[in-house]
Amino acid sequence: MEHLLAIEAETKVLLSASDRSYEQTLMEELLRIFQEAELLFGPRDASYQLSIPRITECTTSRSYIIRPLRMTRIYLSRDSRIKPSVASLELAHEAIHVLSPVPFGWAPTILEEGLA
Question: Is the pTM of this model over 0.90?
Answer without folding.
Answer: no
